[in-house]
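User: quick one - fold this with adenosine monophosphate bound?
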Amino acid sequence: MKDDNCIFCKIANGEIPSATLYEDDDFRVILDLNPASKGHALILPKEHYANLFEIPEDLLSKAAVVAKKVGTKLYKGLGAEGFNVVQNNGEPAGQTVFHFHIHLIPRYKGDTVNVSWKQGKLTDGDRQEILDLFK
Ligand code: AMP
Ligand code: ZN
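Assistant: Sure. Structure tokens for the protein plus adenosine monophosphate:
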């Protein structure tokens, strides 16, 4: 399914031109227009799923393979020294385009990319509550 109001649907399906690094039946991988680092790319499924919770498992598995394939080429080809794979879900998590996508972000020593958080402390209450979810 496509969403007529979704820019990533249009890009993924070639209706809007993009700097495409890779394409197959299910995905298009493009360069991010506002890259965090040299080589920052986005894996876009051609079908519209808003987030991780909507995308089917078989497609997600395929996306992981694309991440490895394209990520390896970026990592080696650009001489990166690290690599982040990032996938945001929901506004509080930093998602701004509500069409599932995976960020591939090559990292270089001394770059200005910020994928970090302040370390907290696991409380007894939280640990128990969360463990109980998986019982
Ligand atoms: P997120 O914040 O995880 O939803 O990521 C959205 C990403 O899409 C950001 O890194 C934007 O720079 C990027 N972006 C938004 N519009 C375009 C576009 N038309 N072409 C390429 N990248 C885009
Ligand atoms: Zn879409």
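One thing worth noting: Helices lie at 7-12, 57-77, 124-133.
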